[in-house]
Design goal:
- The protein is mostly helical and 55 residues long.
- It is built from three helices and no strands.
- It has helices at 10-20, 24-34, 38-49.
- The longest helix has 12 residues, at 38-49.
- It comes from Chelatococcus reniformis.
- This is DUF3606 domain-containing protein.
């Protein structure tokens, strides 16, 4: 998420969390689980916040 791929700054994490209505901990877990690719993280965040339809 940062311009340097091996670094994840507090600002980037907090900004991503606010934008996707996730907690900082959820974002850090996504980064740990999915890596630092922004497009992958965007897709994973969308999965987390998508409502679940129960029949």
């Amino acid at each position: 998420m940062a311009s340097h791929k091996s670094k994840v700054g507090e600002y980037e994490v907090d900004s991503f969390a606010r934008r996707h209505r996730l907690t900082r901990q959820q974002v850090l877990k996504l980064i740990r689980d999915r890596g630092n690719d922004r497009m992958e993280l965007e897709a994973a965040a969308a999965e987390l916040i998508r409502p679940v339809c129960v029949p």
